[in-house]
Fold these 3 entries.
Entry 1:
Amino acid sequence: MESSSESEQEENISSTVPVIRSVSSTTNSVSTATISVANPAWTNFNQEALQREGNFWVGPATDITELCSWLASSPPGITGCGFSYGVGTDADVIMVLAALEKNTSISNLMIGYRAMSTEVVKALSTTLQVNRCLNNLELSSCRIGEQSIKLLAEALKDNRNLTTLKFNNNHIKDAGAKLLAEALTVNNTLTTLELSSNDIKEEGARSLAEALKANITLTTLDLSDNDIGDGGATAIAQVLKDNQGLATLDISCNNLGDFSTKTFAEALKDNRTLKLLNLSENSIGDDGVEEIAEALKVNKFLTTLGLHSNKIKEKGGVAIAEALKINTSLTNLDLNANKIKAAGVIPPFLTVCIGRDYAAM
């Protein structure tokens, strides 16, 4: 039988922690759990608000008011917070963002795959200006308009904590890319920027290229699945000759041809920081690849090169193979889905994906 002091202690604990109510996805029954912030058993407290490896996901039946009170208290062990796909109203998101202004433990925030109103973006901008621990922010597939991008860009100019921004599939177009580029000229903490599938064309790419002349902290830039073309790619390639920050650049699926590829080749002869370059899913042919091969004979820093799904044939394959007899730094090469039928010997140290068309040697 429990002593009165033990019972009182348990009652006190229960009265000071949030009660999270959830609806089971399989039985539709309502379950209630009392969460003790000090108790490590809280990690599996319900089925709808999933907490995986310290990441808290707001589910369709989460009590937002109690959740926000809990988050504002900076519960130990929780480092990530996100909304499940399409879950929560704008008011719910704004409440969580207000709680994060006081939170000192969450470093990862995901509000993706939902339309974000200007009101939500205003709240997010305020949080970014106040919060001092958020490092990673994902806002993919949020259908963010130009006015909202202006708010975020202004927040990025002042923010000194965010290191990763995933802003994929928002169709920000050239106007949005220009606003973010302006922020990059001021921001000196962001190291990773993902802008895949945003309908960015040559003008937007040129704006980002200009920003890279001033920015020395960005190490990863993902512009895949846009339409920057040879003009936009050439502008970025020219910056690589002097930029000493970027280590990863993905411009796959961007309607690139041999012209811009030759500019990248020239840049690779001088660049000493780029480790990964993805030029896959473009229209690069043998002429462009031959230039890349010549650059590989000189470059000693690139370790990963993506060239899959281009228009490379046997002539280009032979040029790459010859370059690899000299180059010893490249360790990953993807030539899959081209039309290479025969080429020289691939060095044994190289991890290479060559596809079915590549002859075994």
Note: Confidence is low (pLDDT under 50) at residues 1-53, 355-361.
Entry 2:
Amino acid sequence: FAAFGILCFAAPLGRALTRGLRKKNTLPGKILRSLLSAAAFSLAAAVAGELDGGEVILLDGDLGAGKTTFTKGLAKALGVTEEVTSPTFAIMNVYESGRLRLNHIDMYRIQSEDEIAELGIEDSFDPDSVTVIEWNKLRHLDGKIYHIQVSAGDDENSRVFTVSEGDPKDIA
């Protein structure tokens, strides 16, 4: 991803981020630093502009890192009108009011691939939806995959979002 360069911000992202990410295929290799909600919503808006349907977004980070906050920003950017909530106990929430259906999956409590199959999670992947997965436990994913690592910033209210393309299990 060296061709994409690296973009760092130490303040709320606002216009600077959206100016830098207007063209498609400019997300991989980006590193964004900002206050949690500002970074999450700005990055989510940039990601939403890249989506045509069928993509999978893998979110990694500690509990409370901002994975669901990012998904709320993505939903807003896609035009979702429903309230977006964490799917921790529901496992999967589906939002259909945006320009693409949004599947938000939290696999934190899933114990095995058999459980994934029983729940029918993989049936939700289709070309008319975007699937966001927190705590991914699927061994194989097809199609366009974005991986976003959310980590702590310089203080408790800031985060670093690192975007790459592809499943990190395939890269290792």
Note: Strands lie at 31-35, 56-60, 92-95, 101-106, 129-134, 145-152, 158-165.
Entry 3:
Amino acid sequence: WLKDKDTGLMDEPAITYAQRPGWHHIATNTMPPTNVQTKTFYLSAQTPEQSVPEDPSTTFEILRPQPIRSLTNTAPEQPSIHSNITNRPLNPDYTLKDALNDDMAGVPEALAKEVISFASTPFETPTEMIGSPVAKLFVMPNRPQIQVVVDLYDVSPDGERTLITRGQFGTRTAQPGQHLTINIETRTIGYLIAAGHHLLLDVSNYDTTYAFPYFEPSVARLYHDNQFSSAIEIPIKK
């Protein structure tokens, strides 16, 4: 009401959000909207897939740079070789104190950033995600400290990346050698994926834009097999 006149404002939807990319404004009565369903994308082993050695003592090659793996619509049906989230200092004398003093400028030369990428197949039709995608990762750290960063990208047919959303997890109280389930709720977003584009999920050991990195060496296994099916759950508008 405005000066005793009904403006009709109370009859309009309660929420308006901006759909990216761009700033297309969409009205809705609830957040997330009622016409949203969760679609699960499962992390899979690298392609071509490495076979699991029958002998547990057998070693296998860790490829660097690591090949892009897949985001699939179905959970893995068999065992597969895990990935590694590695935190590898290049300069052990460089510490968090040094990073704070130089505003993180020296971090890339002092701490290797290792990224594991998982790509979906292209979307056949325009698809809108609205809400907070959640990454559920099954890991096994070898140290009490572990930091995991996830970045979800929209990738065009020509390879151009646009960051959709991201999230981060860190702890110094993990049990080394024990399985740990990490749930990372990423930032809420309304985003329209164009037909022909695909999703790319990057899992890495740090991002100084959002959090102070850990400088201690560590390795955490990232599982994506039939027993421990790491995945990202994405709210998709019907």
Note: The mean pLDDT is 90.
